[in-house]
Specification:
With 233 residues, the chain is an alpha+beta fold. A five-stranded antiparallel β-sheet has the order 4-3-2-1-5, with helices on both faces. It folds into two domains: 60 residues, no CATH class; 158 residues, no CATH class. It is 44% helix and 14% strand.
């Protein structure tokens, strides 16, 4: 099994018809780190354990393309999507630069996101794309983590608008949707844009929850308008 396949998904059925979806977020010779797409929770298993779980039916192998629509968020936020006409030009350029590095690590088949493996790659790849300010290995590892945890959504690599870590309590799906809507409305220099953006956020989240109900998934809770408005400061 190719654990480096960016589309590889593991599915786990729990009691009460609850389904969780996991993806590989870390890989070594003998161990694999699986991350829950929705809760961000991570745990480490030996490769043999995972293979045994698959054989016994405790884990099912699936693909990103087969994820329920409610997990992927919506068609506007699926992988490799970016609203170029609404995003800030500088932010879009930075996102593309980050995306090149992230995809480069995947295509290169980097076995572990550590200084030992990433530092030489960054030097080589930075020269290849003529990047005068290549990232540090920890920064690249963070980009990769954000990209994977967001469901391989390219827009997850946009420079963050929010400050600090005040919204870490939100579901990564809600946070990604919040960042996307704020990014779209940030360029609108007009009165009332915050309120309009929040209404758009609630509307899109409602559409996501409708799809999640069909897939048997729990609703995602929105942030308050106060927390949302802080993203514009």
């Amino acid at each position: 099994m190719n654990y480096r396949d960016p589309k590889l998904i593991f599915v786990k059925q729990f009691r009460g018809k609850i389904t969780s979806y996991f993806q590989v977020t870390g890989l070594s010779k003998s161990e694999i780190v699986l991350g829950d797409i929705e809760s961000k929770g991570c745990f480490t298993l030996e490769k043999q354990q995972i293979e045994n779980y698959i054989k016994s039916g405790k884990l099912k192998v699936s693909s990103f393309d087969d994820l329920p629509a409610g997990v992927i968020i919506n068609s506007k936020l699926q992988r490799d999507t970016i609203h170029r006409n609404k995003a800030n030009g500088t932010s879009s350029a930075e996102m593309e630069r980050r995306y090149k590095y992230v995809i480069g690590t995947i295509e290169e088949g980097i076995p572990a996101y550590t200084a030992k493996w990433l530092s030489p790659f960054i030097i080589k790849f930075g020269n290849k794309i003529s990047d005068t300010s290549p990232p540090g290995w920890r920064t690249l590892a963070t980009w990769h983590k954000r990209y994977v945890e967001a469901g391989w959504v390219k827009s997850a690599l946009l420079p963050k608008i929010r400050r600090g870590n005040r919204n870490s309590r939100f579901s990564p799906i809600v946070q990604t949707l919040m960042n996307t809507v704020v990014g779209e409305y940030m360029v609108m220099q007009r009165h009332g844009r915050c309120a309009a953006a929040y209404r758009e956020f609630l509307s899109r989240l409602d559409a996501i929850n409708q799809k999640r109900k069909v897939d048997g998934l729990a609703d995602l809770s929105p942030c308050s308008n106060r927390a949302f408005y802080k993203q514009f400061k």
